Amino acid sequence: MQKKLSAPASKRAVDEQLSRYRAMRNFHQTAEPSGKTTKTKTKAGTDSMLPFVIQKHAATRLHYDFRLGWNGVLKSWAVTKGPSYYPGDKRLAVQVEDHPIEYGGFEGTIPKGQYGGGTVMVWDQGTWEPQVDVEEGLKNGSLKFILHGKKMHGKWALIRMGGRMAREEKPNWLLIKEHDEFVQAEDAIPITEKLKLSIVTGRDLDQIGRDSDHVWKSNRSDGHANSPARPETRKLKKADFLDGVKGAPRELLPTFISPQLAMQATLPPRGTGWLHELKMDGYRIQARLQGGQRRIVKLLTRKGLDWTSRMKSIAETIEALPVDSALLDGEVVVISEDGTTSFADLQAAFQDGAAKPLSYFVFDILHLNGHNLRTIPLERRKQILAALLAASEPNEALKYSDHLGADAAKIFSKACELGAEGIVSKRASGKYTSGRSDSWLKLKCYREQEMVIGGYTLPSNGIRGVGALLVGYYRGGKLIYGGRTGTGFTQETHRMMRDRLEKVVRKTSPFVQVPRELSRGVHWVDPEFVAAISFSNWTKDNLMRQATFKGLREDKPAKEVTREETIVESSDENSTDKKPSSNKDKSHRMNRSKPKLETSAGASGRTSSKEGELSLRLTHPDKILDIESGLTKRGLAEYYFAVSTRMLPHIANRPLSLVRCPEGSTKPCFFQKHANHLLPDDIESVDVPDLKTGKTEPYITLSTATALAGLAQMGVLEVHPWGSCNNSLEKPDRIIFDLDPDSAISWKTLGDSALEFRGRLSAIGLKSYLKTTGGKGLHVVIPIRAKHAWPEVKQFAHEFVEAMERDNPDLYVTKMTKSARTGKIYLDYLRNDRGATAVAPYSPRARAGVPVSLPLNWRELTLAEHPRFSASNLSQWKKRLARDPWEKWDTQQTLSLADTKNSKAQR
């Protein structure tokens, strides 16, 4: 639908709208644009041409200025917490004075004492598309629009609050994300936390404040004496970056320098003297700039192949550098919306011509203006590089790869938490030496290996693509089978891989040996293509576990692909092991981190007296996760291991939602249901289809005691399984009723209600089981055969509780409204829906004292008080593990379609 747009704004109209803005500022003191040079001949625009900007503003309080270009100015709101992709977050947006259009490019520092004094960052910018008549929307207080930014996308709404707030000088609005494909879950990392840097200069607020400059994309000609010179136009001084080359040997510009490579490490280096950079997922590129009458730029791969024609935007940026000659080292990547780098998107940009902007992150400089910089310390080289790029015109295609010199372990942990690939730690004093060196160490949040494709299977759903790739690596000139991967493909890569592989099909296997059961239905191919594969670990059989296809690598010959081994196991304050450690040494180091855990009850139901040892690595095992009980991370691992035999039958091979509390039970916690490369090795994943979009999502699942105990490393204080198994996702095998009492309900009344459930279920032939919730309520659980679909089971549960409510409306309520639950027991049947979960038997709860959801005998309802158990005092109730109240769990019960009607008749 075409939206009504305003006519071009006259200069007079713009001046009127900006009168308040100008009256509030002294442009002899602040570098903010006055708006006097606004080009009013520019129309308000078509739907696709209206500008928007979001500026992060560290004034008296940190906030985000949200601005929409309209009628020649930027309509502006101050959003305290910044935008959120979760629709439930209604962000307060205070409408402020209109700003000049030029303000959309302003980044810098407003002097103290001036209005809005503080640092301003261009956090995001782009265009916006109104979905209503803008003038009417502003007048009536309901403005809906679509954002097309670099960080902000999709449908949004600004809704003005009513009452007195609408009549304020600065009316209060709410900025709300509307439902679309960009919506994120409540527990997702906020966009303002994931993407913190300026999209104009790549700096954070501290760097902008230190630089004390400003940039904006306008032709400002105010001529204010106190306005700092614009970085785009100021004359460059040699001291900005050339002073650093003094003393460096002179040389002719090299044709190509073989790159320095990093050794893989398992532990971050300790001590000072290291610079730590984020590891990126892209192509290693060396940029060569040759000056003279005709400036020549070449972009070379790590093998010296010329890829300049494939990255013209980057080549143009390098050509514009204010130097005579240079040789730069860096990584070409595509930045995803979450701020991480995506090799799949990079491959799509190179091979399929996808509109994915390329960014060149430069982390080293090897030659500058006739000087060899490879012999001077890295720290000094990076200072020269930073100064050079700062003196150049800002460009999204060229970015400085900054570093941190703080504690490596903390940096690595934070990098993994934010979804980065890992870090590269480099000696600050190190020279640049070609080849692999222990002065560069790489630590990966997940494992990645280049593998040679030797075969493929066909997809089971009949699409044109591949079902799985069989891959391997070379050892002694022979291709060794390393596993298979059937995940990570998009619709485009499915077709692309099939098209390419069909051209190199052969009759025999290129591998030395492949297990017979894995070779059925395989189409063998010549080993020409190299794939980037991420995986969790190597199995005992030397196969990759949980392997995921990331894309094809074109910058490395297949014959050079070998298995990447860990070379550096650990490091001391100033050195690293230069030789591979022996298995004996490795085992010794691992044992230092193994908690000794007591084995849980065996299959017979008896507790073994023999102590076992779980090979589980915990960082900070003595970290306290619950202040009240003193439960530590080690203690939580020991608890999970002890109850694993009883707990696993109810959570194994099911999609799981985990409540993670990395800072403890009293600090903010969050749900995680999707698997990613940051999870412990023994955690698995299951592909769950989204019934709306048809896409699949990798959900967390597990099946072993080791994996369950490993949840302690993640600070998991609650485990919530689906009501169906991985192999039968659409047909649940249990029904759960949650009895949630108001605080006025006594334990006896709650117990009597649970017994009523039991009686009504027994009357229709269903045996039920009882457990605490770890809170004030109870769960009644009914195992059934996985025969009926979710809607049928939910309908049964709904009508069952409705019948109870009709019979005793003074005690029971089935509506979620809190006001209706006063003095009653809320009968929650909504756990019986696809994707809904309930806390697992034996799971701790993320509450003070770490209570446990524990199975009960029905006779325990006669106890004087609600029985309560804690993960921290397992020794006091451990004997319950010897005889499980649910050990006669009847999985063969059937739910007759007539049961729904029968449930109504139970009066």
Radius of gyration: 31 Å
Spans where pLDDT lies below 50 across 5 or more residues: 38-48, 217-239, 567-613, 900-907
Shape type: globular
Q: Which bin fits the share of residues in helices?
A: 10-25%
Number of strands: 41
Oligomer: single chain
What strand line-up does the widest sheet have? 1-2-3-4-9-8-7-6
Q: Look at the helices and sheets and give the structural class.
A: alpha+beta
Distance between the first and last residues' Cα: 56 Å
**CATH class call of the largest domain:** Alpha Beta
Number of domain modules: 5
Number of helices: 16
Mean of pLDDT: 81
Q: Write the CATH homologous superfamily of the largest domain.
A: DNA ligase/mRNA capping enzyme
CATH architecture of the largest domain: 2-Layer Sandwich
Strand content: 25-35%
Described by strand count, sense and barrel closure, the largest sheet is: 8 strands, antiparallel, barrel
CATH fold group of the largest domain: D-amino Acid Aminotransferase, Chain A, domain 1
Describe the structure.
With 907 residues, this protein is α+β, with helices and mostly antiparallel strands. The chain folds into 5 domains: 11-215, no CATH class; 238-444, D-amino Acid Aminotransferase, Chain A, domain 1; 447-560, Beta Barrel (OB fold (Dihydrolipoamide Acetyltransferase, E2P)); 643-727, no CATH class; 734-841 and 886-905, Alpha-Beta Plaits. The chain contains 16 helices and 41 strands. The strands form 9 sheets. Strands 1-2-3-4-9-8-7-6 form an 8-stranded antiparallel barrel. It is globular and about 95 Å long. The protein starts with 10 loop residues before the first helix and ends with a helix.
